[in-house]
Amino acid sequence: MLFFVATIKTGIASDSDIEHVVNDSEFSERSHLSQAEIDQCQKVMESLRRWREADRALSEVSRRYMRLNESDMRTIRMLIRAQQRGRVVTPKDIAREVGISSASTTKLVRRLEVNGHLVRVAHPSDRRTICLEVTAATARVARETIGRQHSRRFDAAAALDGVERETVIRFLTALAEADSPQGYLAEASDSAKQETVETEQESDTCALE
């Protein structure tokens, strides 16, 4: 078990390792299922794997097209969502959303600003704080790439009937709950969150000195 957790953390778990865990009755109770039902469940898992691979491939193409790395793209998406909802975004918001340090956030913001992807604007209520917004050009390109991608996903959902959509919602909700960190991974997640909080507190202290 410890070996498997370590391989996940380092990203070197092979397909055979994962398949072994998925098929191990220690991790999944399936005595009430027929072989046909087990096979069908495995087909669901395989379909999810194919969708994740397609999503990663499309995201990689989008990042290359826009000349952005993963953190850059997450920041752009966050800013676009915020602007659509009329919400302001500060560098601290980006650090929290992307999961990077204040120093890394400063470099990220500077890089995106220099490359014409975002601009700094005055905070509506706090003169000491700056806000960040995506430029019109980057927003337009994002709509043509990310926007079309989400439209195709919406069309796939719209093709289902109401009962099918409720089933998908229930399944994906259960999947999100199942994917919350457990055991050793939960401990690692809590530790990472604490480090982020401490880093933010140190940055705030330095800013006040």
From TrEMBL:
State any GO BP term from the record. response to stress
**Superkingdom in the source lineage:** Bacteria
| Sequence ranges assigned to domain HTH marR-type in this UniProt record | 37-177
InterPro entries from the UniProt entry: HTH_MarR-typ, MarR/SlyA-like, WH-like_DNA-bd_sf, WH_DNA-bd_sf
UniProt keyword terms in alphabetical order: DNA-binding
Task: Identify the Pfam families for this entry.
Answer: MarR_2
What GO molecular functions are on record for this protein? Answer: DNA binding; DNA-binding transcription factor activity
Give positions of region: Disordered.
183-209
What this protein is called in its record is: DNA-binding transcriptional regulator, MarR family
